[in-house]
Structures are given as structure tokens and as C-alpha cells.
Amino acid sequence: MAPKKDPSERRGRGRPQSFDRKEALCAAMRLFWDRGYEGTSFDDLISVMKISASSFYNAFGSKEALYHEVIETYMSVAGGWFLDILGEDADTRTVFQDLTTAAAVEFTRPDQPAGCMISVAATQCSPNQHRLRDLLASQRTQAEGAMAACLQQGLEVGDLPTGTDIEALAAFYGSLLRGMAVQARDGASQERLMEIARFGMNAWPKA
After folding, report:
1. Domain 21-74: what homologous superfamily?
2. What CATH code would you report for 78-201?
3. Closest to 159 measured CA to CA, from 88, 103, 102
4. What is the per-residue pLDDT across 78-96, written as a single tens digit (0 to 9) for each?
5. Tens digit of pLDDT for each residue in 110-152?
6. What global pTM score does this model have?
7. What range(s) does the HTH tetR-type domain occupy (predicted)?
């Protein structure tokens, strides 16, 4: 039997867009963030994006293509704090303390779904969604790479003791942030996440 096609995988003829693309992407982002990729229906998407099916096909092509663009939107709109903090002009321990406490705040904001869209999506994506799982894994790898680069700079200026395993430390804090995101999704309060962040900083290498 031929596999059932995604109803969004159609393309119409090119027409000028009659909607605000950024607003539509932000609306789709919140829906995917809240319900996950597979829990979000095509009808729900075009409803919250306030566009017709034909406009969707013309602008995005498919649900999966939209999701890729939504991930980019998430990183620039809702996830920008992460790279901003890693770029702070402060000692490396302070940067990571700020990073974990900011995560506690961002993951529990009342004006958006709880947690981190990318971390939460990884728990909602079924094994057969290979391309989406690869996309999410790539985003996590990039995040850990950014943390590792910050830690490496800290090692070079003496903020970390000689011999510190930078990759392992970046992986630890990446795992901490993902765990905090899942805790937030499960209803943990900002105060609880702050406490987790404080425990996480106890793992910082001693000079």
C-alpha cells in the first residue's frame, strides 16, 4: 500500500503573499511548541496562521518545510537570549550562572508555552520522523558547540582549571538545560528551576 501523503505536501502556483509571513510563522511556532509536530494538524495550522490552504501551499510547500522555518524563527525570536548570554563580557562561571538562571525564567514565562521548543520537541517526535529528529539533533549540537566555544575561551584566560574536559562540561550544561525544559513542561515552577540551576552550578570545576 502506498504511504499516506501529508495533506500539506502540495504546491500551488506562485502568487503574491497576502499575509504577514513573520506573524504567520510566530503563530505556527507557538502551536508546534505547544502541541508538537505530530500533534499539530494542518487545519489547526492554517487556522492560527490566518491563511487559506492555497496560501499555505504557495508560501511554505509542506508542513515539514514550515516546521524547518519555524525552528529558525524560534531561535531568533524566542531563543535569542541563549547566544546573547554566551556573548556576555563576564567571567565564564558568571556567564553559565546567568545562562541557567535565565533558562529558569524563559522556560516558565506565562506568555509562551512552557520549556524550550527544541528540547520538548525531541520528546514528542516519533522515531519514524528521521529528518525532523536530525534537525532537532543538529540544533542541540549547535547549542552545545556554542557553549563549548565559550568554555574554551574561559579555559584559555584561566577561568577554568587546566585539563578541564570542555566537551563533557558543555554536554553537562546542555543536558541540564534540556532537563530544566522538560521539568517546566511538566509544570515545575520558576523557583524549582532556579533551585535546579543552583545545584547545576555546583558542578563547576574548582580551580
Report:
1. Homeodomain-like (1.10.10.60)
2. 1.10.357.10
3. 88
4. 889 999 999 999 999 999 9
5. 999 999 999 989 888 888 889 999 999 999 999 999 999 999 9
6. 0.86
7. 18-78
